[in-house]
Design a protein that fits this description.
Structural class: alpha/beta
Helix content: 10-25%
Radius of gyration: 17 Å
Number of strands: 13
Shape: globular
CATH topology: Glutaconate Coenzyme A-transferase
Low-confidence stretches: none
Number of helices: 4
CATH class: Alpha Beta
Oligomer: single chain
Mean pLDDT: 94
Number of domains: 1
């Protein structure tokens, strides 16, 4: 299985030169640490930063420089800092080529639930709904099952939805999966993980065609 950094490292292989990329809270923030050599992308955080770098080393943190998850970050040469209105104008204007989000549930039709568990206190929606409504290329980074071992890749989401039919690809600790009109399509297996393990951990319809290769990470 992949750990959180392994998930981030695999998603980093999806990056293309010149892209502007929004990184959501959680596992997606780790992607900035794993950009492949020769790939030049600009990371955006919805709280108003363009040009995020990797996380700072211990002792080098600047408490005034944070991402949307309130984690301390670094700013690369040429980066810019601006208000959230400008940040969301970039997002709503579809100037972001890739959005990577975490999720609590994904449905086989590409619905995403990632902002609220009923009965638990939350500060608000944040930028999640703007991101899923505006982005055309959304990858979700998540664990395949919850802490009770139940699948988070479902026929239909049970939690309040953030967006409908918007997710294109999911990378979990077990697999890389595409969302198709017929359901989840298995593309790659995490190292050491069998197709049977992935089937057992996926509640939604899982399409398996031919030999499924292991991820190269």
């Amino acid at each position: 299985m992949l750990d959180k950094n392994g998930i981030a490292k695999r998603i980093a292989q999806e990056l293309e030169n010149g892209w502007y990329v929004n990184l959501g809270i959680g596992i997606p923030t780790l992607i900035a640490n794993h950009v492949p050599p020769g790939i030049n992308v600009t990371f955006q955080s919805e709280n108003g930063i363009l040009g995020m770098g990797p996380f700072p080393y211990d002792g080098e943190e600047d408490a005034d420089l944070i991402n949307a998850g309130k984690q301390t970050i670094t700013a690369l040469p040429g980066s810019s800092i601006f208000d959230s209105a400008t940040s969301f104008a970039m997002i709503r204007g579809q100037h972001i080529q890739l959005t990577v989000l975490g999720a609590m549930e994904i449905s086989q039709s590409g619905d995403i639930a990632n902002w609220k568990i009923p009965g638990k206190m939350v500060k608000g929606m944040g930028g999640a709904m703007d991101l899923v409504a505006s982005a055309e290329n959304i990858i979700v980074a998540m664990t395949h099952t919850n802490k009770h071992g139940k699948s988070k890749l479902l026929k239909k989401c049970t939690l309040p939805l953030t967006g409908v039919s918007c997710v294109k690809r999911v990378v979990t600790n077990l697999a890389l999966i595409d969302i198709t009109k017929d359901g989840f399509k298995l593309i790659e297996r995490a190292p050491g993980v069998s197709v049977e393990q992935i089937k057992e951990s996926t509640e939604g319809n899982l399409i398996v065609q031919g030999e499924i290769p292991e991820m190269d990470i």
